Amino acid sequence: MLEALKQAVLEANLELDRRGLVTYTWGNVSGIDRASGILAIKPSGVDYADLRAEDMVLVDLDGNVVEGKYRPSSDTPTHIELYKAFPKCGGVAHTHSPLATSWAQAGRSIPCYGTTHADYFHGPVPCARSLTRAEVEEAYEKNTGVVIAETFRDLDPVAVPGVLCRNHGPFTWGKDAAQAVYHAVVLEEVAKMARFTENLNDTAAPAPDYVIEKHYLRKHGPGAYYGQK
Asked: DSSP letter string over 146-171?
């Protein structure tokens, strides 16, 4: 069932590992088939070297396992909340990549200091608020997704395809699992550049709005002209 989706999600998870964004089993990627409302996600705690397409777990949007011999990732409820909140989202990635996680642990959004950031994120990458004790004790993983959705109440998740969960780490998303991982790779690089920027100049200011607009829209706007048609 949904063999192509499981293969795509496997490849996206392996790409996280190839790109050095995960240590041991610290990360996961999912992808959703919107027609059926079923997502495929990495199984919990299974080493990347051992993963096969048939190991991906199929789950519905109520959290029920539809197919699979393993338990799904413990972050599955977070992924589900993101798919519910962001209708254009087709894939979600979660890592504990060092630099992005450091910003999350510092409780700081990543300012848009330059054009590399602006090419992919239309403004700062936001850091969500901390979960309350009640939210953690009631349904921690689900409420992580709820708080991410709350953070994007006035933001476009297509234009800013990532978030920092305070004290936790980054989640990114995209049109499919592969793009979610692509954004995870870019986010780690953006986090690294921002850190170096502040090390070199602790009074650095974000890029001017007109520069951010130019770089984002030349790749993503209706008149985008970067790359080939």
From this structure: HHHHHHTTTS-TTTS-EEEETTTEEE
Phi, psi of 224 (to 5 degrees): -55, 140
Q: Which candidate in 48, 70, 119, 140 is catalytic?
A: 119
* Domain locations along the chain: 3-220
**Which is it for the CA torsion 171, 34, 149, 138, positive or negative?**
negative
Active site residue 83: no
Region of 71 please: left (phi>0), alpha (psi -120 to 50) or beta: beta
pTM of the predicted protein model: 0.96
Examine the residue annotation and report whether 60 is marked as an active-site residue of this protein: no
**229 has pLDDT over 80:** no
CATH 3.40.225.10, domain 3-220, yes or no: yes
Q: How many Å apart are CA 105 and CA 103, to the nearest integer?
A: 5
- Confidence at 121, pLDDT banded by 50, 70, 90: very high
Helices (H), 64-208: 76-85, 98-106, 115-118, 133-151, 177-200
Mean pLDDT across 15-36: 96
